[in-house]
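Example A, followed by Example B.
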Amino acid sequence: MKYLPLILAGLLRKPLRSALTLLSVLIAFLLFGLLEGINAGFASVIEDQHLDRLLTDPRVPGGAPMPIAAAERIKQVPGVTRVCARASFFGAYQDPKNGVYALATNAADWLAVRPEFAMPPEQLAVFQKTRAAIAMTPAMQKRLGLKLGDKVPVRSPIARKDGNPVWTFELLATFDYTEDPNRGEMALIHYEYFDEARLADTGTVDRLIVRIADPTRSAQTAAAIDQLFANSAHETRTQNEKEQTEAAIRQVGEISYFTNAIVLAVFFALLFVTGNTMAQSARERIPEFAVLRTLGFSAWQVLVLVLAESLFLCWLAAALGLALAAALFPNLADFVGLTRLSWSVVGTGLLVATLVALVSGLIPAWKAQRLRIVDALHVT
């Protein structure tokens, strides 16, 4: 701690220059936190996928939906333990801005193939007994201002047989992610009720979710499922969840490549900024270093002092930048699937700050360490 006043005095010798350097480093680490946080978010989404869960979709994306009877055929495939059929429902509650997205399915089957979600058993029992019931995650309930027992009229473009554009449900259950509550918005409704009431595409689903006993045989099982419907009017494409998620992210673009390229360019420029600042500061203070040497400071203590200034500046700016990134990161939750900045990103950021500080401060520190006192005192 005895060096802290000297470190602060060195940085405050030119307060405007130090402030601008601090701001530059802060912005760099703000970008680092957000961009690397996005990378970590996508990696986390992929890692969270289950290899023992297969997703069966129409072979042509956006093609005709599959018959729900396909679920019974898939159950006969060796290694398949559970099949859940689902169709999509969407609309708006009270205001067009209050969008509602729900899965029309059998709730018990869906919870069985999606063990990362949980619903209180007593609520599931009530939900299963009521045809027009709807279950929501707490995040959706909060956004729509709903509570258990409320009626939920949803105006949907999905036509009903009776011509009424409003589908009225009763909110009877809550379900959510078990490991990360309030992570996202979703709802469940009964497939039978939805299918009987809709005008078109009756008896069809847009996805079949399949749980298998042996994750190492996911490719073979997927091929066996697709073989069932080969050369039929409803050909399928089955992938394990991880493969499908990776494919979806690749469609967005090589996000990791571009974000890493941006981060690399930012820190390459940052090295010039901090390196120039430290070099200029060291040149201006050569006589001061000579005075420290005459007061008993060793050459190595002077070197450490210069490096400490660089480390202090970079650590402070990095901490502020990463803290700001962490504060902004929840706003990206819908995009990256994470509600907070990963601690691994924070740790990596502090490590990078240390490397930037050492690289930018090493040459000025080395020069300060090699100063001869007599020569240094003649510098004006």
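Example B, a separate protein, is given below in the same form.
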Amino acid sequence: MNFKTILFEESDSLAIIHLNRPKKLNAFNQAMLHDLLKALDHVDSQDSIKALIITGSGKAFCAGADLSSGKNTFNSEFDNSESYEENFNRDSGGILTLRMFRCLKPILVACNGFAVGVGATLQLAADIRVSSTSAKFSFPFAKRGIAPDACSSWFLPKIVGISKALEWSYSGELIDAEIAYKYGLTSYLVKPEELMDTTKSLAYKLTKDSSSVSIALTRQMMWTLSSSLSPDEAHEIDSQVIASRGISKDALEGVMSFLEKRDPNFSNKISSDMPSIYPWKKSKFE
């Protein structure tokens, strides 16, 4: 696959994306958006890929939006007329995080350095964020005269709580990795030289002995249903998913591998064996 702004590799069962504009501190632009969307589509389409890791090349993860366009920096160039009916430009960061939100594979971030603006907010749609001790974060939107992007008004309060989300978003302050870890913005804090090995180990732990179809369903159930007003919808969907999975080849294999005290060998595939109930909650923007 050919990309302009990212490096994409497949290692064993993992896909690894390096944001790759190191001379620009991996600043986010429209080309990077397109590359990431294309890569996410590929990850979802390949049954051999079990999880995705996103990291940065060089000393930064992503320094935010590329400001080289000056006053036109925040004018969207993304043609989303085929996907969205609204008569306004969609925020590019939000287009990315919504696509991450819909991903059927676990997403992990290995934050290797500065993560500013969209460099911080794009991480919020990942399942697990691993941070180097040299990383720093900032949500500087108010300091630039704009407002939070990438659906972070939905994601960030869920991760760190409303009070801390507002504090960081009002001030735009630079947040040390230790503070980010303390308040749950990152799940793991490791030395720089341990970052990728730790993140890969986590990705393997998530996927090694679990059904890919069950993981995909679990990911979507957790992300979409945890915001329901009551548990009733979750119970309805849980029940239908469990009924569908209960008669699957994977369920039989899960039971037999346990009884026979061996590693499971799940055969169901995301490309062909997702139950008919999914997707149960289509976005009104699709």
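On Example B: DSSP finds eleven helices and ten strands in the chain.
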